[in-house]
Automatic annotation (TrEMBL):
It comes from the Bacteria. Keywords: Hydrolase. It holds the Pfam family Peptidase_S66. This is LD-carboxypeptidase. Belongs to the peptidase S66 family. InterPro entries: Carboxypeptidase_A_C_sf, Class_I_gatase-like, LdcA_N, Peptidase_S66_N, Peptidase_S66C, S66_fam. The keyword Hydrolase applies. Residues 205-335 form the LD-carboxypeptidase C-terminal domain. The keyword Hydrolase applies. It comes from Micromonospora cathayae. Residues 16-131 form the LD-carboxypeptidase N-terminal domain. Coiled coil: none annotated.
Length: 346
């Protein structure tokens, strides 16, 4: 793994690439996508630049990789934003031109299946940004969430330290994108519960690594993860998706990473609030709470076996959450279990 470095940041008024390295959902939900683009222009002052596969369904992985490479190569583009996630970006990253990416480092924003590209950039020594979906968060019904917007704006335009803070309200029950009328009202929210600190009580500083847990497991199977020795000392950041993996599978995925020697090297583990609602499984609030508690127990069981000295923080608003905090991927972080504070350098 190369030495990690922060890429130059965009300025208001700049052109930024909007790409679909995973699913081409802008073609299926143009009303949501257009809202996200409008917010990108009006709220953040950036001019989106699309590519041939941005609105293409089932685009060939080589074509998607070509678009990502072109976005990094374009000297007039100062950042790259993913439209949404998906499930096959594992087939895209092998076709990227790494020489172009190294020579033209730019901030890349994405999460979920975009863990593939974030991990790929990390191995090239380029700090990325976990979060910032054009459809999901910029295209949020009703209005942008203030906390998401504040974090995204800071990650896009600043290089300073930023203190993360728990959301006063949160939700994981989105509106149905098939009904354009739902864009008029904000999704339902529930009162925030703060973070839960477990494990060791100390201060940890380091660089972040991780992403969506299911994708990390796929990356491990494809042998796309750096050796444990190279990742040792990193702060692990994990979250789970709308597929709602059962607690036993969450445990097994972490157990397998532990057997690979990875977990023992992480002095701190940050866990995103477990997404516990989906259209196929419309859980009640009580059922969502039970799901999250079962997942927490599974994670702690794995960490007790493979990283018993780690500082552990649950219920952060990162990943498949509303609101969503942006986490620098490979960037600097300070986890202070003594004062209950987490700061990141964007």
């Amino acid at each position: 793994m190369e030495q990690l470095r922060y890429p130059p940041k965009p300025k208001p008024g700049d052109r930024v690439a909007v790409v679909s390295p995973s699913a081409g959902l802008p073609a299926i939900f143009p009303h949501v996508y257009e809202l996200g683009l409008r917010r990108l222009r009006e709220e953040l002052g950036l001019e989106p630049v699309e590519y041939p596969t941005t609105r293409a369904v089932h685009a060939d992985p080589r074509d998607r990789a070509r678009d990502v490479t072109a976005a990094f190569a374009d000297p007039t583009v100062t950042a790259v934003l993913a439209t949404v996630g998906g499930d096959d970006q594992l087939t895209v990253t092998p076709h990227l031109d790494d020489a172009v990416l190294r020579a033209n480092p730019k901030p890349f924003f994405g999460y979920s299946d975009n863990t593939n590209l974030l991990n790929h950039l990390h191995k090239l020594g380029i700090v990325g940004y976990h979060g910032g979906s054009v459809l999901v968060h910029l295209g949020r019904p009703g209005a942008l969430h203030p906390l998401s917007t504040e974090s995204l704006r800071a990650a896009l335009f600043t290089t300073d330290w930023y203190e993360l803070r728990p959301a006063d309200e949160w939700g994981d029950q989105p509106h149905d994108w098939n009904d354009p009328a739902t864009l008029a009202t904000e999704p339902p929210m529930v009162p925030g519960t703060g973070w839960t600190w477990l494990g060791n009580r100390r201060v940890v500083t380091g660089r972040t690594w991780g992403g969506n847990l299911e994708i990390l497991h796929w990356l491990a199977a494809a042998d796309r993860i750096a050796p444990a020795a190279e990742l040792a000392g990193s702060v692990l950041v994990i979250e789970t998706s709308e597929e709602l993996p059962p607690a036993v599978e969450v445990y097994r995925m972490l157990r397998n990473l532990g057997e690979r020697g990875l977990l023992a090297g992480f002095p701190a583990v940050l866990v995103g609030r477990a997404k516990a609602w989906d259209f196929a499984r419309p859980h009640t609030v009580a059922e969502r709470r039970a799901y999250a508690e079962a997942q927490r127990d599974a994670i702690m069981r794995a960490l007790a076996a493979y990283a018993p000295e780690a500082v552990v923080v649950f219920d952060l608003d990162l990943g498949h959450t509303d609101p969503q905090l942006i986490i620098p991927y490979g960037g600097e972080i300070r986890v202070d279990a003594l004062t209950g504070r987490i700061t990141v350098r964007y």
